[in-house]
Amino acid sequence: MSGEFQDHQIRDVIKINYKYTMGGQSKFFIELMNSKRILGTKCKKCGKTWMPPRINCSDCYEPADWIELKQTGTIEVSTIVWYTTSAFIKAIPYGVGYIKLDGAETALFQGIFSENLVPSKIKKGKRVKAVFNKEREGKMTDFFFVPEDEYERWISKPEFEGGT
Amino acid sequence: MSVKNHGNAILNPKAQSPMELSIDDVLFSRIICYPFKLLDCCLYSEASAALILASEDKVKELKIENPIWITGVAAANTDCFIGNREDFGRLYSNIFAAKAAYKMAGLDYNNIKGQIDLAELHDAFSGQEVISYEELGFVPFGEGGPWIEKTFEKSGEGPWLEGELPCCPSGGLIGCGHAVGATGIMSTGEAALQLREDAGKHQVPITKGRAISHSIGGPGAAYAAVIVMANEEGLKKP
Fold first, then answer.
1. Could you tell me the end-to-end alpha-carbon distance of chain B, in angstroms, rounded to an integer?
2. Cα(B138)–Cα(B103) distance, rounded to whole angstroms?
3. Where are the domains of chain A?
4. Angle at A59 between CA A55 and CA A61, to 5 degrees
5. What is the C-alpha to C-alpha distance for residues B67 and B232, in angstroms, rounded to an integer?
6. Which of B40, B81, B131 should we substitute to test contact with A (largest number of A Cβ atoms within 10 Å)?
7. Handedness of CA B229, B235, B237, B238 (dihedral sign)
8. CB-CB under 8 Å, A77 with B31
9. Percent of chain B with pLDDT over 70
10. Which pLDDT score is estimated for A1?
């Protein structure tokens, strides 16, 4: 045989079914899904309250206890997203930010939605409250934050509900 | 910032995003993530960069002409998890890395602007270069924005190519493209070319013989590195 090599190509798709575990943080997602509770952890030694929860304190490496946190908090920093990955592209524009829940000492990154999404509405210092999807899967996207003065209107929508 | 670095890139034949822009061009470009517009963001790119490093003994043995010496190097980390940070608007890793690198090089953090000829900074987004002006000690906190804004179209001031301390004369990441992993090498190499007075059309005047390169990375830009370099003249000057 002579002549130039030609490769034969077939276009195909590989699908992968897989599971992943939330490990030591599982309790946070189970409580979120089943009872709309937002859990943080408190270090047994230094007492620092971690949100998102750490099973061991990131400062002193001692084990931490689970504690329920309030579902209200304050925005530390935020932005409005206009370009994003395929998973969220249909939702743009939407707000995201770091929120310090009341009683927590570290901040949680989460979506901040508003009926009137302008930077001043979700800026640093603004008070927010958690709203939950009625259909929850035990994922971070099960809940989001809204400005406190919009809370009642958000939880009256058929797909959402208030927390504990 | 975007006008400056895209503009500097016009003079750099290796830059991937050379553009002559007005402030309005930047402000009216497509919004990506408030307050950043398309032209505030670097081009995420592919490229390569290389440096040849050698010991002092080897440089002398090989009789290398016009070597550039690394006189200070430091890296620092801040909280990788942004939610742990106490101040969301600052990269403390920049401050720690800059102070340590300047100290190793025998330079003064409070007077650094007068001790170097140029800085190649990590400007993946326009805001990053502006906060770096402050954290690397060029101007006091809160004055990075005004330093570039008030010197727009004023020759001999601010971080412009003909300014008091040219920042990213190569065009930086916004002007050159950001080939993640290669950019820190590119910035360091650009500063070395400048000190060798071999940078071409974007050459800035070298009178002090010293320059810095700066890079950041990691989650929430937690990691920072600063390198201080000097040519033979810069080694001798106080």
1. 31
2. 15
3. 23-162
4. 50
5. 7
6. B81
7. positive
8. no
9. 100
10. 64
Nearest to B32 among A58, A82, A109 (CB): A82
Question: Measured between alpha carbons, how far is A18 from B75 in angstroms, rounded to an integer?
Answer: 39
- Residue-wise pLDDT tens digits, B163-213: 999 999 999 999 999 999 999 999 999 999 999 999 999 999 999 999 999
Tokens at residue B140, please? Answer: 């006091």
What amino acid occupies position A162?
G
Q: Do B30 and A52 touch (CB under 8 A)?
A: no
Q: Which of A145, A140, A141 is nearest to A162 (CA)?
A: A145
B91 vs A contacts (CB less than 8 Å): none
E strands, A44-159, in order: 49-50, 64-68, 72-81, 94-101, 108-112, 127-133, 143-147
Contact pairs from chain A to chain B, CB under 8 Å? 36
Give the CATH fold of the B2-236 domain.
Peroxisomal Thiolase; Chain A, domain 1 (3.40.47)
The pTM of the full predicted model, rounded to 2 decimals, is 0.90
User: With a CB-CB cutoff of 8 Å, which residues 1-60 of chain A face chain B?
Assistant: 51-52, 58
Residue B33: the pLDDT is 95
Which residues of chain A, if any, have pLDDT below 70? 1
Say whether A82 and B31 touch across the interface (CB within 8 A): yes
Question: In this structure, is the dihedral angle defined by the CA atoms of residues B179, B181, B186 and B187, taken in order, positive or negative?
Answer: positive
Nearest CB to A58 within list B32, B84, B88: B84
Q: Where are the beta strands (DSSP E) in chain A?
A: 39-43, 49-50, 64-68, 72-81, 94-101, 108-112, 127-133, 143-147, 160-162
Q: What is the pLDDT of residues A119-159, one digit of tens each?
A: 999 999 999 999 999 999 999 999 999 999 999 999 999 99
State the Cα–Cα distance between residues B168 and B175, nearest whole angstrom: 9
Contact call for residues A147 and A123 (beta carbons, < 8 A): no
In the sheet that B210-217 helps form, which strands lie side by side, from edge to edge? B69-77, B223-230, B210-217, B118-120
Q: Nearest-CA distance from A112 to chain B in Å? A: 14
Mean pLDDT (whole number) for B120-139: 96
Taking an 8 Å cut-off on Cβ atoms, the answer to whether B82 and A107 are in contact is yes
At A9, the amino acid letter reads Q
For the beta carbon of residue A7, count every other beta carbon within 10 angstroms: 4
